[in-house]
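Researcher: We're teaching a course module on how sequence relates to structure. For the next exercise, students receive a sequence and then see the predicted structure as tokens, so they can try to spot secondary structure elements on their own. Here is the exercise chain.
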Amino acid sequence: MKPLPFIILAMTLAPLSAGAAQHTVEIHDQVVSQPESNKRIALTLDACDGKFDDDLINFLIRNRIPATIFATKKWLDRNAHGVAVIKAHADLFAVENHGEKHIPAVIGAGRKVYGILGAPDVIHLRREVVEGARAIEEATGVAPHWYRGATGEYDSQSIREIDRLGYKIAGFTVNADNGATSKKITIEKRLGRVKASDVIIAHMNKPASDTAEGLAVGLADLLKAGFVFVRLDQVELKEMPAKINKKSQERDGH
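Model: And here is the predicted structure for the students to work with:
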């Protein structure tokens, strides 16, 4: 097995105290830069549940902007039209694993992240990952290689188990829409701070939100600035310093 990322070691070696077992981490990754192209960035879109954002995906298609889509089985089962559109543009979109039921990658009875219950035990976490992957392959014909848990936070036991199952965890550096709750102007401002090698996270499952409008402006500006969009299957990611959250189970609103 490959060496554990340094953030897991930091969580494991941190002094034990009351509640230490509740630590979670938000993983941050950047695209590994290449001499021939030092302005590469990656757009990732979560499809947690809900609907298909036609406006957003059509904008990406018109502007030839590739994206890595992290879809749950729940979303795939409810959005046949969206799946068909994505499959029809396989040159632009890669579909990766966001789990079966959108359960956070934290283990323990009653544990929550942003108010969402995690997996009560490792067996349930394993099912969330494996069944999510199975759904992706059945829907697209391509097996996923990346995993992003619901809420984007993980505990050390979940990170180890996802690694054992053979999946790479997809982190990010720029949270564009905060779970599709941000207003258009906020999304534009966040994208205005994007730097080379950043990995952007946004959402494509809430068409009633401001995400499509905000991304349309912000992504167009990034294209004009000379940034090159890539999918995660086209690059390597490097781990960046991440935030350890000691009380994420008490946080709501994602």
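Model: If you want an answer key for the exercise: The chain is about 35% helix and 25% strand. The helical segments are 6-13, 54-62, 73-78, 80-88, 122-140, 156-164, 184-192, 211-224.
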